[in-house]
Amino acid sequence: MALTGIQIFKMLPGTNCKKCGSPTCLAFAMNLASGKAELDSCPDVSPESREKLSAASAPPIRPVTIGYGDTQFKVGGETVQFRHEKTFFNPTAIGAMITDDTPTDEIVERVKKYGLLQYGRVGLNLRPELVVIKANGGDLALAAKTVVENSDLSVILYSEDPAALKAATAVLEGKNPLIGPATTENAAAVAEVALAAKVPVWLKAKNLDEVAVLTDTLGKAGLKDLVIDTGARTVKEVFTDSICVRRAALVGQNRAYGFGTITFPCEITDNLALQGPIAASLIAKYAGIVVLSELDGAVVFPLLLERLNIFTDPQRPMTVVEGIYPINNPNENSPVMVTTNFSLTYFIVSGEVEGSRVPSWLLIKESEGLSVLTAWAAGKFSGDDVGQFVGKRSNILEKIKHKSVIIPGYAAAILGDMEEELPGWTVSIGPREAAHLPKFLKEYKVSGG
User: Fold this and answer.
1) Number of structural domains the chain divides into
2) Residue pair 333/400 in contact by the 8 Å Cβ criterion
3) Sign of the CA dihedral running 223, 227, 233, 234
4) 330, 263: one domain
5) Which domain covers residue 37, as residue numbers?
6) Domain containing 199 — which CATH number?
7) Does the predicted TM-score (pTM) go above 0.85?
8) Quick one: how far is CA 384 from the chain centroid?
9) Cβ–Cβ under 8 Å, residues 439 and 403
10) CB of 286 closer than 8 Å to CB of 243
11) Domain check: are 196 and 296 in the same one?
12) 18 assigned to some structural domain
């Protein structure tokens, strides 16, 4: 049961040492109660208090780490039912299913193709993370070995045969696969394999009631890292179950359902075009993993963008990293523009510049994720600050021979202060609307030097 900040404070050392990063023990207790701090941040809490606080402060949905390397991901760890209440933490993992009777050459071809599905956005690399290898009369271990030797994708094993899971898990040593499904019939044997290999397990139930039975059985066997498959294989049922599991864990505080979920749109329909919208609804409500029959850019890219938007903190604007962004292979004589780091501003401006085919340098200045007009009004895009950024902090002079810069039309008011901050520079006012940039750039001539 969750503790209040005062209850937590009574179990802390009370030294106000600030080692945790908070000014007082009371402040740390309040942060811990609200989920804004970690218990491990306090080095002086007694073993007895640590044990009590660890149990009380554990997230209602246990976070489980799966996979390895760049494709490692977490399932669970969420603390709110709705994103606007705080934020969602661990993005839904996206993967494809490959059966173990698939020819080796085809597995190699598919996973290499999946590895190319990577998209840069707001400084992040968006990509699918995993492959599910399902037993279908072939060699599960060989298929698993083929996947990890030819890609960096993380692996989920799908077989009800504990012996096959054991052999494949041995091949994946150090890769931390998710193995299963554990069912009422094989739970003890699958638990034995997982405990020996120290890997997480996914369970497959026949209904929500059986989920509670299986999590209890596996928990008593010593397994803590679990992922739930409710067994639903229709759109209505899997969607409903996904919501019910989240509500049971967060609203009902029922630890039996306090785990992330895995869903299989590929087992609801064979039509990949239909799997996409099914996966989209499950990413929103509240799947930890969605598995498609194939990873195709036309389906995966929209899902990655949806995931990015849902799992971006709504209290923090989506931003682009401050720096220099070359567009259309600019050279030392190409025009230079400066704008804020609000991601929408960046994408609109960069898209128009790219469409103009004019080689250009785009400077992105840190503005706390505010748009140009808002940043200017808030003092985050003032003339002297922007001038210092352009002339000194950005290092753009290492890439150009001229001293010309274009500012957004909505920030025309900063022109005078910029000219004072940048003696010898020519500061030009660009159009207010990004759509007018192509024409402006084609007619623009750099000057100054």
Assistant:
1) 3
2) yes
3) positive
4) no
5) 5-57
6) 3.20.20.20
7) no
8) 36
9) no
10) yes
11) yes
12) yes
Query: Residue 36 carries which side chain, given as an amino acid letter?
Result: K
Per-residue pLDDT of the chain (449 residues), as tens digits, is 467 888 889 999 999 998 888 899 999 888 887 666 778 889 899 888 888 887 666 778 999 999 999 999 999 999 899 988 888 999 999 999 999 999 999 999 999 999 999 998 776 899 999 999 999 999 999 999 999 999 999 999 999 999 999 999 999 999 999 999 999 999 999 999 999 999 999 999 999 999 999 999 999 999 999 999 999 999 999 999 999 999 999 999 899 999 999 999 999 999 999 999 999 999 999 999 999 999 999 999 999 999 999 998 877 778 888 999 999 999 999 999 999 999 889 989 999 999 999 999 999 999 988 999 999 999 999 999 999 999 999 999 999 999 999 999 999 999 999 999 999 999 999 999 999 999 999 999 987 65
* Length of the chain (residues): 449
Strands (DSSP E) contained in 163-321 are 179-182, 201-204, 226-229, 260-263, 289-292
Residue 316 belongs to some domain of the structure: no
Q: Verify that 193 and 84 share a domain, yes or no.
A: yes
Does 68 lie in the same domain as 50?
A: no
